[in-house]
Amino acid sequence: LLGQTTIKGYFSKILKMSQDKIEIFESELSEERRKQLASDFDMVQKALKAKSEGLQNSKSELICLYNEIQSLPRASEDKDYFLVAHNLLQRENSELEAKVFKLSQEFEQFNHFAIGRKTAAANLITSKNICKDLVSKLPVLEVEIQSPKEDREELCPEQGESKQKEIAEESVKEGTLPRERQKEDSQQNQAMKGEGQQSTLKPEEIVRLREELNRINESLLQSQSSGDSSDDTSAQVGAVNARSD
Question: What mean pLDDT is predicted for residues 11-29?
Fold first, then answer.
């Protein structure tokens, strides 16, 4: 009996301890449940508040739309005004595009003209330098042309005299001059005369060469002056175009 009483007492203590623990767990669970429910309630309250604000905004938008619908006739007038302004802007844009295209064409023409003028100026300078060089060489050429002529004129009589002396000596020695020798000497004399005539320029040819050089120089100067006048004309045309714009 004593042993049974001891065992019952022991089980009763364990039962009591278990009940106490269960009560503690229940209290803790209830506290956590309460906190969870409070948190859920707050979230639901915030969501309802956000939906209420969204509904309020939607209501404001609906009111604005209603007011716009009420003012539709005035909106139609504004639409007509904007259409007129749009057409006007399109026309001005087309005019500006035409002016830009015209200016681009004029710029291309001016660029082409400027390049051509540079090339013509370079050719003009080269031609003027060549002409000046030829003009400066004319006196030297005249001297060089005259001096071989004078030398040949001096040499020809001397050669003729020496040749005659040799022929006379040979004729004296041989008694007679062979015909073949006479023919050879006459051919040599004619060749020398022909060379002198070919290498010698006449004075009128020198004068003609100088006149041609002068005409070339004058034509170059006239082309330069005409290029300057064309520049002035292009500048005047550009000024007229600017005034018309």
Answer: 71
pLDDT tens, residue by residue, 175-222: 444 455 555 555 555 544 444 444 445 566 666 777 777 777 676 666
SS3 content of the chain, % helix, strand, coil (to 5): 95, 0, 5
CB 149 within 8 A of CB 196: yes
Among 66, 98, 123, which residue terminates a domain? Answer: 66
Q: Domain span at residue 148?
A: 109-245
The verdict on residue 144 lying in a domain is: yes
Report the alpha-carbon distance of residue 62 to residue 180 in Å, rounded. Answer: 138
Q: Are 145 and 201 in contact (CB under 8 A)?
A: yes
113 and 57 in a single domain? The answer is no
Please give the torsion angle defined by the CA atoms of residues 8, 9, 14 and 15, in that order, rounded to the nearest 10 degrees: 70
SS3 category, 63: helix
Q: List the one residue out of 128, 151, 130, 147 whose CA is nearest residue 139.
A: 147
Count how many residues are written for the chain: 245
| Domains of the chain: total | 2
End residue of a domain, out of 66, 91, 120: 66
